[in-house]
């Protein structure tokens, strides 16, 4: 279970770095124009078919994009300790984490550390490696967690989000 970070329970810090709160893609004016046109088409379609829930979902999605685009992501501290993982003010014990994977393909712009949780509610956590060397991270995590060697690419959801700049 995730918990607020208590210095007495978090363990000895092994390594850490700062990551953005969320990925903010670079969008050009053409992206916004296309998004507005598609949004209006979907809104008209939803009203013509009487699907008002779809219209609400489109409006909420547009609102979220506008709100996120209007501010810079906050920096969040990420740390590996001998007891678990700290992300911002949250602590995740290694017992809660099923495995980890590192996908490091700099030529494709993919440098991420993934944690898969045992709980059905927390499927996966993606942490950008930024300029970190993945080898010491892997060596340290192998002391506490199994590595998912099957994951060699970023998840489809992340690839699509990157492609569509969401």
**What is the chain-wise order of helices and strands?**
EEHHEEEEEEHH
Q: What would the average pLDDT be, to the nearest integer?
A: 89
Q: Which ranges are low-confidence, i.e. pLDDT below 50, for 5 or more consecutive residues?
A: none
Structural class: alpha+beta
Number of strands: 8
The gross shape turns out to be elongated
Here the CATH topology of the largest domain equals: PH-domain like
Q: What's the CATH architecture of the largest domain?
A: Roll
The CATH homologous superfamily of the largest domain is named Pleckstrin-homology domain (PH domain)/Phosphotyrosine-binding domain (PTB)
Placed side by side, the strands forming the largest sheet appear as 1-5-4-3-2
- Compute the gyration radius: what is it? 19 Å
What helical percentage do the residues reach? 25-40%
Number of helices: 4
Describe the structure.
This protein has 166 residues and is an alpha+beta fold. It has two domains: 3-23 and 74-163, Pleckstrin-homology domain (PH domain)/Phosphotyrosine-binding domain (PTB) (PH-domain like); 29-69. The protein has four helices and eight strands, in the order ββααββββββαα. Strands 1-5-4-3-2 form a five-stranded antiparallel sheet, with helices on one face. Strands 6-7-8 form a three-stranded antiparallel sheet, with helices on one face. α1 (29-48) runs antiparallel to α2. The longest helix is centred in the N-terminal third of the chain and has 20 residues, at 29-48.
């Amino acid at each position: 279970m995730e918990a607020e970070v208590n210095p007495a329970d978090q363990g000895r810090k092994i390594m850490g770095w700062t990551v953005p709160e969320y990925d903010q893609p670079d969008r050009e004016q053409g992206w916004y124009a296309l998004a507005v046109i598609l949004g209006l088409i979907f809104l008209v379609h939803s009203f013509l078919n009487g699907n008002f829930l779809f219209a609400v979902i489109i409006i909420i999605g547009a609102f979220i994009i506008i709100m996120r685009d209007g501010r810079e992501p906050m920096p969040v501290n990420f740390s590996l300790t001998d007891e678990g993982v700290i992300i911002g003010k949250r602590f995740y014990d290694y017992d809660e984490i099923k495995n980890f994977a590192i996908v490091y393909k700099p030529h494709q712009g993919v440098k991420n550390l993934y944690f898969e949780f045992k709980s059905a509610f927390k499927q996966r956590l993606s942490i950008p490696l930024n300029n970190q060397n993945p080898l010491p991270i892997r060596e340290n995590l192998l002391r506490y967690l199994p590595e998912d060697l099957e994951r060699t690419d970023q998840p489809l959801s992340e690839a699509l989000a990157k492609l569509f700049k969401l």
